[in-house]
Amino acid sequence: MAVSVYVPLMVTVVLSVLAPRLARRLAPGPAAWALAGGALVTALGWLGSLALLAFTGFAQIPEVAEEGRWSVTALRADDPVYLTVSAVATVALLASLSGLAVAAVRQVRHLLWARRECARLPGDLELAVLDDASPHAFALPGAPGRIVVSHGMLRCLGDTEREALLAHERAHLRDRHHLFQTAWRLTAAACPLLRPVAGTGGFVLERWADEAAAERVGDRTVVARAVGRAALASAKAPAGDSLAATGGAVPQRVRALLAPPPPKRTLPLVMGAALLAVSCASLAEAASDSEHMIEGAQFAACVTALKDPGLPSPPPGHGPCGRPPRGHDGPGRHLR
């Protein structure tokens, strides 16, 4: 456990550094799925590692050991974790869980707000045109979602550019991009190291919708022109949390649309999947080692209680003293 418990933490650091760079070079659809899956796995690994480190220190408290009927001495000898490390892990775990809870409440409120706004919009079609001179265009997730465009935005675009803009927003709704956003925001709240991944994820979603619009319209230049004009028109009215064609790094999106479609690369995805598999395997090994440590400490306490009649006898079902747990050849001795 001394090494394996730290592997998911190191994988999280590696992902936060490399994933944003690699994702921008991949096709946006696979990149979004890879970023979402990688963020979820690494966030769980992050929380799991912190929980194991915190528990190892928590288990060494005499009052806790007495309730669990295990030996603190045997536990410390089996896998000594400095109380400072355990305390830091405990604080980090509490902060991560608190951040996750706050982010979850915010996301639920945002989705409920979007559904209410969808119901308040005029008409019952997918497209809602607002009588507003300010240029706006965004997608509201709901059941079903709605595309909101203002008259001010429509006046800034030509016919084919309007078609490209609507195709872009329709792709956001069709592929449920708000669920990707929710996953990235929750994982970034649980693990601050994943904030670069969440930022890159927003750009990848806009690129995904750009490519879908280009395929629908059949002209990448038209989509690039629509994105550029919409961004210039709404420069003084940021899109906020909505899925809007003016989101992300617009100059980079325009350059990507003026270039050929991105090639499909599988090697970065395979490497990322292998890295996540290592993280999961290490966390499983650390959890198994933690379980064996507790069994060994209970075995040591059992033997000590039998040797000293003055101590309380171990409760039934806590491992017979006649057969040591796996990895032990006697009380307090671990063969790892």
Automatic annotation (TrEMBL):
User: GO biological process: any one?
Assistant: proteolysis
**Record-level Gene Ontology MF annotations:** metal ion binding; metalloendopeptidase activity
User: Would the keyword Cell inner membrane be found if you checked this record's keyword annotation?
Assistant: no
Q: Which residues cross the membrane?
A: 6-23, 35-61, 81-105
Gene3D superfamilies the record matches: Metalloproteases ('zincins'), catalytic domain (3.30.2010.10)
Region Disordered: list its residue ranges. 310-336
Q: Which UniProt keywords apply?
A: Hydrolase, Membrane, Metal-binding, Metalloprotease, Protease, Transmembrane, Transmembrane helix, Zinc
Q: How is the cofactor bound?
A: Binds 1 zinc ion per subunit.
InterPro entries recorded: Beta-lactam_resp_regulator, Peptidase_M48
Residue intervals of the Peptidase M48 domain? 121-190
* Keyword Transmembrane helix set for record: yes
What cofactors does the UniProt entry give for this protein?
Zn(2+)
For bias type Basic and acidic residues, the affected ranges are 326-336
**Cited PANTHER family:** POSSIBLE SENSOR-TRANSDUCER PROTEIN BLAR (PTHR34978), SLR0241 PROTEIN (PTHR34978:SF3)
Sequence similarity: Belongs to the peptidase M48 family.
Which named protein is this?
Answer: M56 family metallopeptidase
Q: What is the lineage of its organism?
A: Bacteria, Bacillati, Actinomycetota, Actinomycetes, Kitasatosporales
